[in-house]
Amino acid sequence: MEKYTPKGKILTNKQENVLWFAFNMGFFDYPRKINSIALSKKLGISVSTLSEITRRGMHRLLKRQFETLE
Q1: What is the pLDDT of residue 64?
Q2: What is the spatial distance between Cα 1 and Cα 68, in angstroms, rounded to a whole number?
Q3: Measured between alpha carbons, how far is 31 from 50 in angstroms, rounded to an integer?
Q4: What are 44-60's pLDDT values in tens digits?
Q5: What are the residue boundaries of the structural domains of the chain, listed by start?
Q6: Coil, strand or helix: which one is 19?
Q7: Alpha-carbon radius of gyration of the chain
Q8: C-alpha span between 38 and 13 (Å, rounded)
Q9: Is 50:41 a contact under the CB 8 Å cutoff?
């Protein structure tokens, strides 16, 4: 897999890296190509930490998206 290069200031570095890795591993695909347990093991973090990082990252992205629509 290619190396990730950060793109912006919306997400923290950790959020951006985790979301990029999750996206590339198929975590957001339907059906999922990797589940949260396997993804957290690959990242070396707990499932609850993965959940928190992805939730907060998605919140930031959605907040930014919908703020620009106002």
Answers
A1: 84
A2: 33
A3: 19
A4: 999 999 999 999 999 99
A5: 13-67
A6: helix
A7: 13
A8: 21
A9: no
